[in-house]
Every structure is written in structure tokens, then in C-alpha cells.
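worker-3 :: picked Peptidyl-tRNA hydrolase
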Amino acid sequence: MVDDSTWLVVGLGNPGREYAGNRHNVGFMVADLLASRVGAKFGRSKRAHAEVAEGRLGFGGPKLVLIKPLTFMNLSGAPVVSLAQFFKVPVANVIAVHDELDVPYGQVRAKRGGGEGGHNGLRSMSKSLASKEYARVRFGIGRPPGRQDPADYVLSDFSGAERKELEFLVDRAADVVEAVVLEGVEWAQNKYHGG
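worker-3 :: C-alpha cells ->
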């Protein structure tokens, strides 16, 4: 039996080498790992200002359309909506992977719907999709230390101590995305929210 569902997995981040290691770019990191897991390579989309990779999750599993918008975070919604329309993906099958200030570093959380918590990428997606009912995989980055401006914090690179765990956490976030696709948000919450 082939699963003929299609999921749009949006790794949120900013394009350009200078942003590659930023906390705000963890969505791109997770999308890159998912692409390698499904044996896909990112290429520039002809339909939207984004990089796209397509593959199946497991043998005969659901199709994943992985996208990394190249518009900068606050304009992410436009490429998301045009690719969702092109691939005929309903909002229920859209997953945003993003950094989250309100979740401590080291934790990954799944949820469906809700507010944007000041995240410009989510705000742009919600506006463009005219819905907040897409799934989110929230990669905890914690709050900035001291009086550091949150905007500066998200655009700074992970610390040396954080980088020691980063590969493991990106791997865990990719596992959570796969769990949401295969089993649903609630199942993913039950499995991954313990730690």
C-alpha cells in the first residue's frame, strides 16, 4: 500500500551564509537533515522563491515536500502558500519547523495551531495561509541571557556549549517531524514531550 498523502514541511530560516549558524535558522538545519534522510537534494524552485526537495518517508510512505523559503523570515508565507497550492497540500498537512524562545534549549515540542509568539516567520505563514491550523515543530532556544534583545539573540549563532548538543537536537526535531507525519501531533507530543 502506497500512502499517497503529501506533506509540506517548511524549515524556517534566513538565506545567506552569514545566517547559516544562527538560532533563527534551525528550521533550515532540520529541513537539510530530513532531505538527507529521504535521499533528496534541495534545488531552486521555479514556482516560488524557495529551495525545494521531494522524497518519500520510508518505502511507499507519504510524500514530503521540504521547503526552505529564500525570502527572509518575515516574508516566508508567500512561497509557502504558492507551493502548498501547487502540490495541493491542505493546511492540515503543513508543518512549520522553527526556533522557539518560549521553549528551553534542549527541548523539541510539537503542536497544531495557536499563536505565533512574536515569530515573524509564523506570522507571515498564518497570514498567507489564512489559517493558524498548521502543525509546528518548535525547537527550543530558550530566552536570551540578561538584557540581550531577543531579535539580536535569535540572529546570533549557538554557543559553544549549545553546539555540543545541536546535532543530537536537530536529529530529534527531524524525528518529531516524521512522527507528526506518520502518527499525528498528539502521538508525537506523547512520545517526545517527556524530555
